[in-house]
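Fold this sequence, please.
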Amino acid sequence: MAEAEDLPNGVINLFFESGPEGSAYLVDSPEVPVVSFTGSTRTGRAISSTGARYLKRFGMELGGKTPMIVFDDADLDAALPILEKALTVFGGQFCMTGSRLLVQNGKYEAVRDGVAERLRNVKVGPAADPSSDMGPLIDRANVERVDRVVEVAIAAGAKVVERGGPIKVGPLADGAFFRPALLEVSDNSLAIIQEETFGPVLTIQRFSDEADAIQLANDNEYGLSASIWTRDIDRSLRVAQALEAGSVWINDWAKVYDSTEEGGFKQSGLGRLNGLAALDDFIEHKHIALKPGLKQR
């Protein structure tokens, strides 16, 4: 960072490692008063537990299970391409991946079939290839893990719309490539609904009305983000207010700006990234009360 203008040496230091030793030292060091972490809820809990003995402050942007709520009056021409990208961006390895699709009864079949067709035609390939629609997962171990998640969901009652899965033949067989999956579900308690997959696996389920959509969307320990699709502005704002999520996009997904706060409710984190609220974790507030001496006569 020596090239950065107007920053004294030592203000920003970059440290890279492939293991946990250095990061564990920073978290456990009494000389590090604040930890800002982005990652899984499990790791966030471990960091909080380790640093708590020093009463450290934490900014945590953790896991998510983003519901995308599609009402009967949604513009599907606008929605379908974004619903696809919400799953395939970063291969679904994104805390805001749109992994839960909730669709009102009147548009259910149209959305299910439209999303299935788009996922079927996703071109999986190297991330460096401009023609690829979706790149690989982080490694083969995660390909196997995500595939097991799908198998467990099917065994628990999820219905296959698009099975997806590891690419085992052709030039991509030696890599960590996984075709996106789409599963129909009706039981909101299934692990595939409740737990973060961190891969390109999408569930779809029906809802009847606003109250039903809100109940299903909020029935989850995560609360990072959500997406609402409707032409009714009043409905969109009512539902957005009722959702337990730190970011809610209306007729869009994952638009994040430096000036707007990003963070989660419930088990999706503490504090906020971006915006003025992001500075709170790093500021000490001090009150100084000065009583001037009395003037001598």
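The longest strand covers residues 98-104. The chain has eight helices and 14 strands.
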